[in-house]
Write a structure and sequence with these properties.
Strand order of the largest sheet: 3-2-1-7-19
Number of helices: 9
Shape: globular
Number of strands: 26
Largest sheet: 5 strands, parallel
Length: 426
């Protein structure tokens, strides 16, 4: 955000934020830079102050306590003079009256409204999906329930072989639970990794005790009251005490759709994070934003983007003028001791794209995706140094003369140096 400046936000302007995570919190901080005395109401569906959802699997693993996940405690809300309303789902927006209504009947008027309603796990339409012991992993409450139930769990089945499924498997293995992952494709992390790298990650997971079934789907979840088995599309039954759904997330757009805001997969916003109603903004997982490379509307359900979007939205709600530059998908994590990071495009998308691969076997592996002579994506396995540099290069359109130079990009320019937009080259 630009440096704090005095704007024309009236001290009586009432800001209402629906959602109490990264986007909402950063919106509050931006608003307070411009409008230090304006009333702010934050309405959260959950019963906790803001916490870090990336730590949910750490709680399941027993590596952190619930209170350690909190990153904005009640004192923070008091310091920022925020009226905090928790455990309160908002079910309706009256745009003509500029008022939001909670499930219990309480309502709040607004001058500027931010939708930061996040996303929810995609739950497949399977028989038995509502049995006890079948859950997604998205919230602190999800993680607490899973952790508390593990004393009676010997085996868990995870539906989905993406990053969330892997982190859940790692947490459960840490707690002594047998884990089997069902994957519809023939490879792990197929949207990110090439065949060799995927095989390496699979072997790491198998050595830790994870079992895999590939090209396999669940047909039904069985049990009396609580899940007892998963019936596969082959007809075979796999016994289990816990099923975790890790099939991705969907934006929580119900409120926006019911309010007749323009939506596609998410809530559509302009570069100032405004929706089709100029008094309503959207940010975080619920917002559909332009890709930084080509402007294509995408969902960017990752913490850094939610924080950036929320900060931009709050600044503009309070009378500032700052454009959101666009989202760049990225991830960085450790799976069973193996470091993995990706940024931008992870596979060639068109005939204009090409992939360049370095490394093999048990050593570090890096793959770069180029469009003509510009870096548009990178994947690093085993050694994730320079991924921050690759992110800057992708964002700023740096040309690549020789792909080999990407292995040690700091030889061409320092990480602390400015990379000239459309001008830098390695």
């Amino acid at each position: 955000m630009p440096a704090a400046v005095k704007m024309n936000a009236r001290s009586s302007t009432h800001f209402v934020i629906i959602g109490n995570s990264a986007a909402g919190i950063n919106a509050v901080e931006s608003i307070r830079r411009i409008a230090p005395d304006a009333p702010i109401t934050v309405i959260g569906r959950e019963n906790f102050p803001a916490y870090s959802p990336v730590l949910t699997t750490c709680l399941i693993a027993g590596q952190v306590a619930a209170e350690q996940m909190i990153y904005r405690d009640y004192a923070w809300y008091k310091k920022h003079r925020v009226r905090l309303v928790l455990g309160t789902p908002v079910v309706r927006i009256d745009r003509s009256l500029q008022r939001v209504y909670a499930q219990g009947g309480e309502s709040w008027g607004y001058d500027k409204l931010l939708l930061a309603t996040g996303s929810s796990p995609v739950m497949p339409c399977l028989p038995g999906v509502n049995l006890d012991g079948v859950t997604g992993v998205r919230t602190l409450e999800d993680a607490k329930k899973i952790s508390a139930a593990l004393k009676d769990v010997r085996k868990a089945v995870i539906l989905g072989g993406g990053l969330v499924g892997f982190k859940c498997a790692e947490a459960l293995i840490h707690r002594g639970v047998t884990v089997e992952i069902l994957i519809g494709s023939g490879s792990v992390l197929s949207r990110i990794l090439d065949e060799d790298s995927a095989h390496r990650v699979r072997k790491f997971a198998e050595s830790a005790g994870v079992w895999f079934r590939f090209n396999t789907q669940a047909a039904a979840l069985e049990g009396t009251g609580r899940v007892e088995s998963v019936t596969l599309d082959t007809g075979k039954a796999v016994g289990c005490d816990l099923v975790i759904i890790a099939k991705g997330v969907r934006p929580n757009t119900d409120l926006a759709v019911a309010s007749c805001l323009d939506c596609d997969r998410g809530v559509l916003v302009d570069r100032f994070m405004r929706t089709s109603d100029p008094n309503i903004y959207a940010a975080g997982d619920v917002a559909q934003v332009p890709h930084v490379l080509n402007g294509t509307p995408i969902l960017a359900a990752i913490w850094p983007e939610a924080a950036a979007q929320g900060g931009c939205a709050g600044y503009n709600m309070a009378g500032g003028c700052a454009g959101y530059p666009g989202a760049l998908p990225r991830n960085s994590l450790t799976l069973f001791g193996l470091q993995l990071a990706s940024v931008g495009e992870t596979r060639p998308a068109t005939e204009r794209h090409r992939s360049v691969h370095f490394g093999s076997g048990s050593g570090p592996v890096k793959r770069f995706v180029l469009e003509a002579d510009r870096l548009v994506g990178a994947v690093a396995l085993g050694d994730i140094r320079y991924v921050g540099v690759y992110r800057k290069m992708v964002q700023q359109g740096v040309r690549v003369r020789k792909a080999e130079a990407l292995l040690k990009p700091l030889c061409g320019y320092g990480e602390k140096q400015t990379i000239k937009t459309n001008g830098g080259a390695v």
